[in-house]
């Protein structure tokens, strides 16, 4: 196939050998990836499986049972079980089991190889994914749209969006019909690298190719336009979407609310929030937290506090970031006692402060020369678990140095180094300024 030319080729056998795990126990080690917002789409649809497992051990036990059953179950059943293992995010395990099947003479079909290909892409080895495509062709198996979707997705995950677009063009030229997942993956990839203009062009071509954009397509582009502060363009696309009968979801609304917060369009923000509720689209913790953070940065702390109360009334519990944003707002206004009340409130409600929460408070106390309280908080922080980082130490060292308590500042500097934290220009300049200011030259 022409589309194979120019792509990195790695022999399939070498790829398989690389993932053959010498220690059987390693089959049980899950490989999981956390994404704040999933940067890829599920590109390998499996037929509804009768296999449902919470633990990989149970899936492996069934696999071994299937291998020793006579006659063996069909390849379809093996594929379904492998699909279940992939959904458990045990990608290396799935590949190893497929190798085992091959060694026992269980021949693969295009669905099996698509599972292997998907595993390699999820393991960020799209080069091995292309070797699987090469093997498909060598075996006379015809790749399907899912095959190319998975490779395109793998390239986008690896930041190789230009190559993903090239493969998309090759796919179309070879007569394969892209589906909605193909387009959404490419659109998402283009938006991730900031090429929103090209993403919009692709949106326009979808209709020409009988592929109707959905909420994911529009929301992805609206989010990208919002991040680029192109609020008018985002709103126009939002209107186009709703005009086509596509109902916005919490992601769409949150993107627009974030953009409007950044541009100070507070009336429009509240109108959009009310519209969400009227359309039975419930704001989530991210939506509310963005609002709280933006209002606090604008000094509108009373309104931010009202938003927190409102979210609780609507059954959405504030998280550590929400409370930290509110604390930061109070600290910016010098209302340290109110900030401390928020910290105490979040602890009472079972929301654990992180290092960022404590650092906000420590910095606020030092800024307003309440260093003793900052040091008490620092001790509390160390006792409760979060490990201080450089910014925390810098805030305390600065506060102590400003008040001439240089011996304590030096002790913190030594402790910082003992923890393996790297001192930066701010640390040294803060100490030097303190020594000079108080005549310790």
Fold and architecture overview:
The protein is an all-alpha fold. It contains 23 helices and no strands. It has helices at 12-19, 56-67, 75-87, 91-103, 110-122, 126-138, 145-157, 161-173, 180-192, 196-208, 215-227, 231-243, 250-262, 266-278, 285-297, 301-313, 320-332, 336-348, 355-367, 371-384, 390-402, 406-418, 425-437. Helix 3 packs parallel to helix 5 (110-122) and helix 18 (336-348) packs antiparallel against helix 19 (355-367). It is globular. Residues 2-42 have low confidence and may be disordered.
Helix vs. strand class: mainly alpha
Quaternary status of these chains?
single chain
- Can you count the helices? 23
Low-pLDDT sequence parts? 2-42
Order of helices and strands: HHHHHHHHHHHHHHHHHHHHHHH
Radius of gyration: 28 Å
User: What's the total count of β strands?
Assistant: 0
Helix content: 55-70%
Mean pLDDT: 85
Spatial gap, N to C terminus? 75 Å
Overall 3D form? globular
For the report, how would you describe the main beta sheet?
A: none
β content, as a range? under 5%
SSE map:
Layout: H1 12-19, H2 56-67, H3 75-87, H4 91-103, H5 110-122, H6 126-138, H7 145-157, H8 161-173, H9 180-192, H10 196-208, H11 215-227, H12 231-243, H13 250-262, H14 266-278, H15 285-297, H16 301-313, H17 320-332, H18 336-348, H19 355-367, H20 371-384, H21 390-402, H22 406-418, H23 425-437
Helix pairs in contact: 2-3, 3-4, 3-5, 4-5, 5-6, 5-7, 6-7, 7-8, 7-9, 8-9, 9-10, 9-11, 10-11, 11-12, 11-13, 12-13, 13-14, 13-15, 15-16, 15-17, 16-17, 17-18, 17-19, 18-19, 19-20, 19-21, 21-22, 21-23, 22-23
């Amino acid at each position: 196939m022409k589309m194979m030319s120019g792509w990195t080729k790695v022999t399939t056998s070498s790829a398989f050998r690389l993932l053959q795990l010498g220690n059987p126990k390693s089959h049980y080690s899950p490989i999981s990836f956390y994404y704040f917002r999933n940067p890829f789409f599920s590109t390998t649809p499996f037929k509804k499986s009768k296999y449902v497992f919470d633990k990989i051990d149970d899936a492996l036990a069934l696999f071994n049972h299937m291998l020793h059953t006579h006659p063996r179950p069909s390849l379809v059943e093996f594929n379904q079980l492998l699909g279940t293992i992939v959904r458990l995010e045990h990608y290396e395990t799935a590949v190893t089991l497929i190798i085992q099947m091959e060694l026992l003479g269980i021949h693969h079909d295009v669905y099996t190889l698509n599972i292997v290909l998907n595993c390699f892409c999820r393991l960020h080895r799209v080069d091995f994914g292309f070797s699987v495509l090469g093997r498909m062709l060598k075996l006379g198996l015809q790749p399907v749209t899912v095959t190319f979707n998975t490779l395109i997705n793998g390239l986008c995950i690896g930041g190789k969006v230009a190559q993903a677009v090239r493969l998309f063009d090759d796919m179309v030229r070879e007569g394969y019909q892209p589906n909605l997942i193909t387009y959404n993956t490419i659109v998402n990839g283009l938006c991730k690298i900031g090429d929103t203009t090209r993403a919009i062009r692709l949106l326009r071509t979808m209709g020409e190719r009988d592929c109707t954009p959905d909420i994911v397509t529009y929301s992805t582009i609206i989010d990208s336009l919002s991040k680029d502060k192109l609020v008018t363009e985002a709103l126009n696309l939002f209107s186009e979407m709703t005009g086509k009968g596509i109902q916005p979801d919490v992601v769409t609304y949150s993107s627009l609310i974030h953009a409007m917060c950044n541009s100070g369009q507070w009336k429009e923000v509240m109108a959009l929030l009310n519209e969400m509720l009227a359309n039975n689209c419930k704001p989530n913790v991210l939506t509310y937290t963005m609002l709280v953070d933006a209002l606090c940065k604008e000094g509108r702390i009373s309104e931010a506090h009202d938003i927190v109360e409102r979210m609780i009334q609507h059954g959405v519990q504030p998280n550590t970031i929400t409370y930290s944003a509110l604390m930061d707002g109070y600290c910016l206004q010098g209302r340290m006692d109110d900030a401390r009340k928020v910290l105490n409130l979040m602890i009472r409600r079972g929301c654990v402060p992180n290092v960022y929460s404590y650092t906000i408070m420590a910095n606020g106390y030092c800024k307003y020369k309440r260093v003793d309280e900052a040091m008490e908080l620092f001790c509390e922080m160390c006792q409760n678990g979060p490990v201080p980082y450089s910014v925390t130490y810098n805030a305390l060292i600065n506060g102590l140095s400003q008040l001439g308590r240089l011996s304590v500042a030096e002790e913190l500097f030594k402790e910082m180094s003992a923890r393996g934290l790297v001192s930066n220009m701010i640390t040294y300049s803060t100490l030097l300024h303190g020594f000079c200011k108080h005549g310790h030259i």
